[in-house]
Amino acid sequence: MVNHERHRMSLFLVGIIVLLAPMLALTAPASWAAQPSGDVSLWTEFTQGGEGAGIEELVETWNAMDNGITVTHRPIGNEEFFTVIRTALAGGEPPDVMQYEGYQQTRDFAAAGQLTDLTQWWEANQDRFTLSEAGERACTFEGKIYCMPYTYHTGWQIYYNTEILEANGIEVPQTWEEFVAAMDTLKAAGITPIALGAIDGWPAEHWWMAFLVQRCGVETVYQAIEQNGASFTDECFVQAAADLQSLAQGEYFSAGATGDDYPAAQAVFLSGQAAFFQTGSWWASGWEQTPPTFEVGVMPFPRFEDAAFTEDVTGAVTHVFAIPTGAQNPEAAMEVLDWMATEEAAIIWARNGNMSLISGAVEGNAPEVIQELWATVGDASAALPWIENELPPGVGEDKVYSGSVALLTGDMTPEEFGQSIQDALEASTT
Predict the structure, then answer these.
(1) CB 210 within 8 A of CB 154
(2) What is the spatial distance between Cα 92 and Cα 367, in angstroms, rounded to a whole number?
(3) Can you tell me the distance from the alpha carbon of 104 to that of 362, in angstroms, rounded to the nearest whole number?
(4) What is the rounded CA–CA span in Å between residue 349 and residue 336?
């Protein structure tokens, strides 16, 4: 009798537990719930300089927390990076967290259903970010946010060898006309004015963009990109291409300009064989790791005396992070993104020479040269992102890149260059 009573009591208790289990799950403290864990794969194009050092410190700091989530970083060289991530996304084998360069890539990846919608996360966290409107543009598709903006880069500067300029009695040029005069003085002295390695296209394209913002202005460039009120065949676009071509015709570039790559051009400049080197702020971000052997000055890209647009510059949100829809561990990936948006992570990123978009991180934490370049961002009236990031790949990474080199070799006229871009853009939208 007693055993029967115990049996009935046991069944009764089991029934109560079964009934209460759902309610207990709903009301249990957060600490009771299973926390995300496991490995998180992270792919970036950060292989060197401040970006390489910064991502390495971020990963090491995260993994040292020993919170059950381990980040494994795969750095991929810039020239192959875009092909690798597109192949992985299309093949359904992406990383858990992916860095890329936003804008058109966001639109392409999101349209293909390859990115996780981060709109709610952004709405809850956007107050942590400066330049949030620019960040949204880099990460938006059809009104939703698909990535976290992380780094800004400026393109509106030219680096110069202070020793060469001083030895040749050249003051730092303030206008384009003064810049040309300085280059003529250098040529007469047997010194190469500009180091350039344009075989991959984009280093020459960056010169064209610096002319575009002066000749056309950012608003008109976007009208051409959006095919609404302007065309790449318009006079100002053709003139900017002619400005680039005139540098090659004037023999102001280094001898291997169209056959050398970007690292080769850096080597020409750093070995004292050229006076000027135009590139983005990412180059200065690496000086903490590998300082130049001589004092490098930084000057604003010189403006034409008759420039129609005197306040527009080049620069953009360049690095964004996203979680692919094919991620193997999306919950843990979200934990990593949350931490990357904290002050602790932002200070690490800025300290290594990067323009973090987390408010206040650059000021007081980044190297002095990066703080100075960052200050110029707020002074500009409008900034044009690297144009290949706002165009379909078949236009920006094909026609603009290859056409920029063809301008230097003389295989294409400025008019043909503009027409080539326009034709490809129209074809991409039909």
Answers:
(1) no
(2) 40
(3) 27
(4) 14
What residues contact 212, with CB distance under 8 A and at least 6 apart?
Answer: 221, 236, 237, 240, 384, 387
* DSSP code at position 36: P
Q: Give the C-alpha separation, 363 to 280, whole Å.
A: 19
352-376 pLDDT, tens digit per residue, is: 999 999 999 999 899 999 999 999 8
Q: Which two tokens stand for residue 360?
A: 């206040």
Which two structure tokens, joined as six digits, stand for 428?
A: 């991409």
pLDDT in tens, 231-263: 999 999 999 999 999 999 999 999 999 999 999
Could you tell me where the beta strands, DSSP code E, fall in 184-332?
A: 192-194, 274-278, 296-300, 312-322
What's the CA dihedral at 349, 350, 351, 354 to 10 degrees?
Answer: 90
Beta-ladder partners of 319: 151
Phi, psi of 385 (to 5 degrees): -65, 160
Burial 339-375 (b: 16+ CB within 10 A, else e): bbbeeebbbbbbbbbbbbbbeebbeebbbebbeebbe
Report helix, strand or coil for 342: coil
With 0-12 / 13-18 / 19 or more C-beta atoms within 10 angstroms meaning exposed / middle / buried, residue 128 is middle
Q: Which residue has the tokens 């570039």?
A: 253
Closest to 334 (Cα-Cα) out of 45, 25, 38: 38
CA–CA dist 6, 21 (Å, integer): 22
Judge whether 337 and 63 are in contact, CB under 8 Å: no
Can you list the pairs that 52-58 forms with residues at least 24 positions away whose Cβ atoms lie under 8 Å? 52/286, 52/289, 53/286, 53/288, 53/289, 53/352, 53/353, 54/348, 54/349, 54/351, 54/352, 54/353, 54/354, 57/348, 57/352, 58/340, 58/345, 58/348, 58/349
pLDDT 10s digits, 373-424: 999 887 777 899 999 999 998 999 899 999 999 999 999 999 999 999 999 9
Helices (H), 380-429: 393-394, 401-409, 414-428
Contact of 292 with 84, CB cutoff 8 Å = no
Strand bridging mode 140-141 / 148-154: unpaired
Q: What's at 119, amino acid-wise?
A: T
